[in-house]
Each structure stands twice: as structure tokens, then as C-alpha cells.
Write a structure and sequence with these properties.
Elements: H1 11-17, H2 20-28, H3 35-45, H4 60-73
């Protein structure tokens, strides 16, 4: 039996966590951020670590990158160098 999401977010809380440009990006695609994506964004804002385990297609990659993207988007253009590197996991070990 799947466990319920421990951190349900109201629209007001979502707006506080997710800057307008990201809310518009989701909306333009007919999407909305998932609970675990917002939860990781909240934890990153509190400088806390998290472990996310979710099935394929659940938005884990975006959940992992969203805090960094939000942080980088807050830096004014020309205020310094920005960089983002994507690291991927190793394929599962198959004996």
C-alpha cells in the first residue's frame, strides 16, 4: 500500500516555494509541480538533505535540479558566472 505524501502543499505554499517564471513554465505545458519536487525544493531552502525514491517517470531528475535552477535564476544577469553540471547515476549492476 503506497504511503500518502507527507507534505501536501497548498497553492499559496507552492507560490512561496516556486518563483513565478517556474510556475509559468509548468502551466505552459499543462503541468503542475509534484509533491516530492516541492518537498525537495523546501528542504533545499532549509539547507537540509533528502533522499528521494520514486518510480521511473515520477520527475526525480527535475526534483533534484529544481532547487539549483531556482537558486541560479535568482542571480541577476551579469552578476557572476553560473554553471550547472548534470551527473547521472551508474547503470544498475546486473550479475
Amino acid at each position: 500500500m503506497p504511503s500518502p505524501d507527507p507534505l501536501p502543499f497548498t497553492p499559496l505554499e507552492t507560490a512561496a516555494l516556486l518563483p513565478d517564471r517556474f510556475r509559468r513554465w509548468f502551466a505552459a505545458r499543462g503541468w503542475s509541480p509534484r509533491e516530492h519536487q516541492l518537498a525537495l525544493l523546501e528542504k533545499a531552502g532549509d539547507d537540509r538533505s533528502a533522499l528521494l525514491i520514486a518510480p521511473t517517470g515520477a520527475g526525480k531528475t527535475l526534483a533534484g535540479f529544481l532547487p539549483t535552477l531556482v537558486e541560479l535564476s535568482a542571480v541577476p544577469r551579469g552578476a557572476g558566472e553560473k554553471s550547472l553540471a548534470k551527473m547521472t547515476g551508474l547503470p544498475a549492476y546486473r550479475p
